[in-house]
Design goal:
2 copies of one chain form a homodimer. By secondary structure, chain A is an alpha+beta fold. The first copy, chain A, has one domain (about 5-160): Gcn5-related N-acetyltransferase (GNAT) (Aminopeptidase, 3-Layer(aba) Sandwich). Chain A has 4 helices and 8 strands, in the order ββααβββαβαββ. Chain A has helices at about 50-60, 65-75, 125-135, 150-155; strands at about 25-35, 35-45, 80-85, 90-100, 105-115, 140-145, 160, 170. In chain A, strands 1-2-3-4-5-6 form a 6-stranded mixed β-sheet. In chain A, β5 (about 105-115), α3 (about 125-135) and β6 form a beta-alpha-beta unit. The termini of chain A are far apart. The model of chain A is unreliable at about 1-20 (pLDDT under 50). The interface between A and B is large, with 52 and 52 residues.
Chain lengths: ~180, ~180
C-alpha cells in the first residue's frame, strides 16, 4: 500500500461522537512493528483516551501531569493530532502533538511525542506536517515551537529556523 | 496618588457590557504626558476599539494587519491587557499586550506595545506583570515569548530567561 493514499471513512477506532473536527481519521502509512506491517491512522479528534496519552508520555520518560489539567489543555488547544496503530483489531495511541493559537496570526506547537517502538519511521515528521497543514488552512503564518537541543536538527529539516533575525525564545518560570 | 493603589469601579472609559473578564479596570498610575500628570487605567476587557488598537500599532511602526483577523486573534487569545490614559475626559489606548494559552500548562505572550509618548515610564513592565499575574492565577507555569534582540534585556529584567537548558525558539514561515 502506498503512503498517504487512502482516505479512511467509517472507522470505529475512535469514537467520533461529539467531534467538532473537520476530519477524524486518515489511513496514512503501513509501518514496521515486531517484524509485521501495521496500519497507522491519523486523527484530529480531541476526544482521546487520556490514560492512553499518559502511557504514551510515560514511554518517553516525560514527567506525569495531572489528568484534569491535561484534559483542559487539550480542550483549549487549537488543534491536536494523534497517531493510532491498529494491530489484530486493537487500537493503540503511538503519537501525539498539539498546538495553541489565536486562530489568526500565530501558533505554537507543544508536546510532540512518538512511542519509542515506532520512532525512526517518519511519524514525527507526519505529526508536524499535519499541524502545519491545518494551521495554514486558517492562514496562520507564524508557526513557532520551543525545541530541546537534540531535536533542533529534526525541526530544521522540517523548515523551522532557530532565532530568525536574532529573535530569542524566552521563558518565565515561577520562583 | 500612590502607585497600584485604587481599585477603580464604575468607570465609563470602556464599555463593560458583555465582558467575561473577571475585572475590567484598575487605576494604576499617574504618568507624565506633555508636562501634565495623566491617569492610566488597566483593562482586561476584550471589547476594545480595534481602530484605536490599529493607531497604537501604527505609532510604533508595525505593519498593518487585517482588522477582521485582529478581532479573531483577540477573541481567541487567553488574555488581553490594555492601558488607557484619560485626559480632559477623553480616553486613549496607549498600551496593549496579549497571550495565547492552553489554560493549563503553557502560555505565549504576543504583541506587547506602548505608545512612544508614554515609553520609559514602566508601562511595558506593568503590562507584562499583569499578564504573568493572570496566568499564574490559573497555575500556568510555563510562560514564554519571542523577543526581538533590542528587548531581550527588558525581558531579562522581568525574570525571563533566553534559551534555558539550550531550548531554542524556532519559527516556520510560508515559503
Amino acid at each position: 500500500m502506498t503512503l498517504w493514499t487512502l482516505f479512511f471513512k467509517n472507522s470505529n477506532i475512535l469514537s467520533e461522537e461529539n467531534s467538532t473536527q473537520k476530519k477524524d481519521i486518515l489511513l496514512i502509512k503501513d509501518i514496521k512493528y515486531k517484524n509485521k506491517l501495521v496500519e497507522v491512522y491519523l486523527s484530529t479528534n480531541k476526544n482521546i483516551n487520556l490514560s492512553d496519552l499518559e502511557k504514551l508520555c510515560d514511554s518517553v520518560g516525560w514527567l506525569r501531569r495531572p489528568i484534569k489539567k491535561v484534559k483542559t489543555a487539550i480542550q483549549n488547544s487549537f488543534l491536536i493530532v494523534s497517531l493510532i496503530q491498529k494491530i489484530d483489531g486493537k487500537a493503540c495511541l503511538i503519537g501525539f502533538a498539539r498546538a495553541t493559537s489565536d486562530y489568526a496570526f500565530n501558533a505554537t506547537i507543544w508536546d510532540v511525542v512518538v512511542h519509542p517502538d515506532f520512532q525512526g519511521q517518519g511519524l514525527g515528521k507526519i505529526l508536524v506536517h499535519e499541524i502545519i497543514k491545518e494551521l495554514r488552512s486558517y492562514e496562520i503564518n507564524t508557526i513557532t515551537l520551543f525545541a530541546d537541543p537534540e531535536v533542533v536538527v529534526f525541526y530544521n529539516n522540517l523548515g523551522f529556523v532557530s532565532d530568525p533575525n536574532g529573535i530569542k525564545g524566552m521563558f518565565w518560570y515561577p520562583k
